[in-house]
Write a structure and sequence with these properties.
Layout lengths: L5 E2 L2 H5 L8 E4 L9 H10 L4 E4 L11 H5 L3 E6 L6 H8 L4 E4 L2 H13 L3 E4 L13 E4 L2 E7 L3 E12 L4 E2 L8 H7 E12 L18 E4 L22
Parallel strand pairs: 1-12, 2-3, 2-9, 3-4, 4-5, 9-11, 11-12
Antiparallel strand pairs: 6-8, 7-8, 9-10
Amino acid sequence: MSVRKIHSSARAALADVLRDDMTIMSGGFGLCGIPAALIDAVLESGVRGLTIISNNPGTEGMGLGKLFKTRQVRKLVCSYAGENAEFARQYMAGEVEVEFNPQGTLAERIRAGGAGIPAFYTRTGVGTVIAEGKPLAEFDGKLYVQERGLKADLAIVHAWKADTEGNLVYRMTARNFNPMMASAGALTVAEVEELVEPGGIDPDHIVTPGIFVDRLVLLDNVDKQIEQRTVRRRAAVVEE
């Protein structure tokens, strides 16, 4: 069995990696598919001045929201920021820098960074504040704005299953930003719910090839929080 990539805990996997002022990509969408254990390891390390690239800043006291409470984040590159009151307070007070992106643009910027594409053009954002200060070009009679690819010093992701070589499989919507980010980090660390031997995953089911994954952490337990619980009323029971 290969043990080169396997670490005993999230803290151990990041111990020699974390430093002040680094850029970290963090997978997930809301609280779905977030690398919660790895985020906690970043929190416990106390590193500061971080640039975080993530779809959103987590929620109050959960996920990336913990890093804003301790003021470890200097800048956030995101798409959505509506569920974290502490982040909103810091943003409105000018205490944290924010770079907003249309969600599809953010996803493509990360994918481009992982693919070695320095920039691309999109129509999304043309004529809005999103395009201010960015190069514009005309293609086929239509105006496009240039967006730069994104890369990070560290990518932390959550996967459902991995083999010991680092091949990853995600589960349903928890897949979200994780695969793109896994390819765009100079170093990628994945926390996983299940670990199997090589050959234990159908090759056709592998989403992220192990070549992109440097370190693995097998989770002892997974506490999957629900950001917004939506339920329907229970049907009335008719007694005969």
